[in-house]
Amino acid sequence: MKTPGSQLHVDSEIGRLRTVLIHSPDNGIGRVAPSKAQDWLFEDILHLETVRKEYDYYVRVLLYFLDPEKLRDRLSAGDEPNDDRAFYKPGIRGFYDSDHVLEMEKLLADILGDESIREKLCAAVCAIEGCSYNQQLDLNALEPDRLARILISGSLKSGEMLFPPIPNLIFTRDLGIVINGYVLLNKPAKKARNREALLARYMFFNHPLFAAYRSKILEIPHSVQHFLRPGEAPDEKATLEGGDVMIVSPNHVIIGCSERTSASGVTEAMRLLFDNEVVEKVTVVKIPHKRDYMHIDTLFTQVNRHTWVVLHSICSGRNKIKGEPLEYLSDKKKQNDVQILQFKKNKEKPKKFKNIESLLASVSEKDLGSTEKTVFIYSGNDEFPHDEREQWTDSCNLLALKDGVVLGYDRNDRSVESFKANGFQVIPVEELSKQIEAGKTDFHSLENTLILMPSAELSRARGGFRCMSMPLLRDPI
Ligand SMILES: NC(=O)NCCC[C@H](N)C(=O)O
Predict the structure, then answer these.
(1) Best residue among 21, 246, 394, 467 to mutate for probing ligand 1, ranked by most atoms within 8 Å of CB
(2) Which end of the chain is less enclosed by CB atoms within 10 A, N or C?
(3) Domain spanning 17-474 has what CATH number?
(4) In order along the chain (477 residues), what is the average pLDDT of each group of 10 residues?
(5) What is the DSSP string of 291-357?
(6) Domain coordinates in residue numbering, the chain
């Protein structure tokens, strides 16, 4: 029998969530220097304690939903002034330690208990971070919980920084993605995320929870063209990040070709998925390669079987004036066009889709058998500039706990109005917690609901709740 938490299977974006991998903001986030913020992929420096408070609400919602036992005797956990948030901190007595809400730092500490894995991982981290041999020996001698914390935060307890933090580890989505019973590991485009990928690789290959899946971990190979090229140009490098991968139905994966996921990365991922018979259909959505859009999940996510939240201008190309000379002459035209191609195993010619809405409608109606007309909820109520402002703060990046119940930021006011106009209940998490704790609401009876999460600080890290989650197990849709 499999222990709870050890089963990997995801075949949709909206099946009831059973197990998820997350990482709470660690001290590394509080050590991002202004001069490095952009290099480390933050637009600004963040206030650690505020981010943590906001994130703790997220952990509580996940526990209410996936592992309520953990909250049974601790309904006010985290609100006690003197416990220093122990409930939320891996490696500390009192940590929630759930089998359904898995914390990356805890899983890392687990594998570091094995001497041979500890040695290999310390050597690998020290190699990519340029540590001295003696630093490597010192790290190797630490006990697992402390070592895990240092490998993530980059800093010793004294505050000394050994290497940079990896503040984007909170976005566990980008580390890899479970597709049916397989794990497709990422290959990050940005140097700032390399150590995250290394830690994720060690975790999946070595943690006993995933032992049954070792032969089902898929790794994107280096493209030979890339390392044979002269110079350091990133062209042709095969990169892929989880925010660009959506398993929308048991046999259909959408992959974004974006600022982060290269054409070679898409090609290699598609080959792996077809060769291993993971899915029969892969749709590639090429989006403009720019920071605002980063991954496809910053532009659209699924809410229920027939509803999606999207940035409308990316579907309609509304802001372009057709026929202008610029459209023909500028190279940018090609770069900024959305192109959608659907590939099937052993079929030579891909099918083309006119726009993102027609693709998503075909997912809902054909793949998922929805009999209702597909509904699109637009970022910022489709009003310029609120559509783009709210997309920037992740109005389109929602996490579905189940079909129709999603988590999103509380700051995207016009998008929230669109949800209401489309018949959704909208409830702030503080209110929901009170109702649950007073026994007035049962989480599982919620339907078609957007849960609003505090976001003033968290949203400045540039990712929403889809980015902050790696679903490991969902019920079949
Ligand atoms: N899936 C996502 O869209 N992830 C968001 C990642 C944000 C992070 N600051 C980054 O730039 O990589």
Answers:
(1) 467
(2) N
(3) 3.75.10.10
(4) 76 98 97 94 94 97 95 63 84 94 98 98 97 97 97 94 97 97 96 97 98 97 74 76 98 97 95 98 96 96 98 74 54 72 93 97 98 98 97 98 98 98 98 91 93 97 97 96
(5) TTT-SGGGTEEEEETTEEEE-HHHHH-TTS-TT-HHHHH-THHHHH--EEEEEETT-SSPEEESSHH
(6) 17-474
